Each structure stands twice: as C-alpha cells, then as structure tokens.
Amino acid sequence: AAGPRLNAAGRMDDMSLGIECLIATDAARALELATRLDRLNRERREIEADMQESALALVGDVRPEGNYTLAVHHPDWHAGVVGLLASRLKDRFHRPVFAFASDRDGRLRGSGRSIAGLHLRDALDLMAKRNASLLERFGGHSGAAGATIAAHALDEFRAAFEAVARERLTPADLDLTIETDGELGADEIGVDLAQMLKRCVWGQGFPEPRFVGRFAVESQRVVGEKHVKAVLSCGGRRFGAIRFGNAASLAATIDAVYRLEIDDFRGESTVQLVLEHTR
Q1: Parallel, antiparallel, or unpaired for β 253-265 and 211-223?
Q2: Considering 119, 183, 200, 203, which has the largest number of Cβ atoms within 10 A of its Cβ?
Q3: CB of 124 closer than 8 Å to CB of 168
Q4: In this predicted structure, which of 25-39, 123-137, 149-163, 213-227 has the lowest mean pLDDT?
Q5: Is the pLDDT of residue 157 over 70?
C-alpha cells in the first residue's frame, strides 16, 4: 500500500519526498523515490517496535486498573512515531495515553490517544486553565491530541492528566467493550465481501466492520518473530489468518474478532482473517 509509505516520509524524513514521488513523470526516478519511501517505512516500523517494547517495559510495573491514565517518556523515542506508540498503549490498556519524546531544545513533545468518555483536547484545555504554565502548546480533537511541556514537568503533567480523567471517566469507562458487526456464515467469508468492504471509506466514528466467530485452529506458525500465521476452519471451510504483534500460540479452538483482508499471492487473491482479539 502506498499510504503508509508516503506517511513514513513525513514522520521520518521530509514529506517532499513523497510528493516528488507522486508527481514524478520519469519511471526510473519514481522507482528510486518509491524505494526510498519503502526503506523509510521499514525503518519507521523498526523504530516503532523498539519504542513499544521499551514503553511496555517502563509501564510493566504499573497496575492499569489502579490508574485512569498513562503518560510515558523515553529519551530514545523518536518524536515522529510517539503517536503510534500512544495508540498501541491505549489499545493494550484501554486508558487515555500520552507518549513523549525529547525535542532538540530539551522540551517534551507528546502525542496522546483517548478512549470514549474523555475528550482529549478538552482535557488538555482544562489542564491549561488550572495551570497556565504546564502546557507550552497543545491541540487536537476528542480522540487524539498533541502537547509540548518542559522537560521537568512530566510528573506534574501526569498528576494533572490523571485528575481530569478521574473527573470525566467512571470505572465502567475503563472496561474494554468490543463492538462487532456480528457473525458471518462460513459461506459468507470470501474475497467478494472483502473487496466490497475495501471499496468503502471507514474512519473516526465509522469504523471498518469487524466480525466474531468460533474457529478450529488447524495449523499455526510464527512469522517475523512476533506474528502468528494460521489456518482456521469453520463450517467445513478453511481460511488463512494472521494475528499481528503477539507470537503466543493459539488454542485449538478460538473465539475471534476479526477483519477481512485480501491476500494477493502469486497472482491469486484469497481472503485472510486479521485476528484482532482471541480467546
């Protein structure tokens, strides 16, 4: 997909690289630029993986059920990908999260992601009204926002962020609720449905459909050291499946929440189940 590679240029280097690739009229030049974009995207994924691992190590001793929020920082994190890290941590703990990186001037530049019930930009606005010197700058919307603070202000930010979240959220808000579009029959899972869904536009407030089902796990293997590729069966049919970011073995039978993707391999398109939650 071109989108993540174009996005990586802005995060890791210079967005003009992606623009130049899009408007290039010479095929050789376009290929050269596309190769550089692909390399940047691979670098972005490696940095993100390293950042996530170090962040999870930092919060490993935190009891998520005792905290409404998380605010984490590491001097080695890259400012261009802290938003991705905040999103991963938010999904893992189902808490509003801010992840900070150090900028060249020594300030902390953070990116935040929130859960339903806490409007992140409004939370920052309230924090700024209560302590005018805490936030040097901030902005965003309900689900995502950014903030810049002084290097010494992280603990103060944590306390203020936690206080606002406890005012706006209830303990029930911290319980993860997984919404799906129901169960598909085995004969409904196929390339035609996956292609139809991919032609639609999904986004904030209108998420891509997710389905739930029970499957037997016929085979599985670890790929890329941290993903599981499997063959599942249901209703007499077999389906390829993949679970990203978790190399733990799947049970013999699983209940799964999944998305439908198209797997193009050697000119043949098949449907693939992207497993987002399993039990």
Answers
A1: antiparallel
A2: 119
A3: no
A4: 25-39
A5: yes
The 3-state DSSP class for residue 191 equals helix
Handedness of CA 166, 168, 172, 173 (dihedral sign): negative
Work out the burial of residue 173: count CB atoms within 10 Å of its CB; fewer than 13 is exposed, 13-18 middle, 19 or more buried: middle
3-state secondary structure of 69: coil
Select from 170, 193, 186 the least CA-distant residue to 238.
186
CA 29-34-39 angle, 5° bins: 130
Residues sharing a CB contact under 8 Å with residue 55, sequence separation 6 or more, in sequence order: 72, 74, 77, 85, 89, 99
Looking at residue 12, its pLDDT comes to 61
Phi and psi angles of residue 45, each rounded to the nearest 5 degrees, phi first: -65, -40
Residue 4 and residue 41: Cα distance in Å, rounded? 7
Q: Which two tokens stand for residue 276?
A: 């987002």
Spatial contact of 85 and 99, defined as CB atoms under 8 Å apart = yes
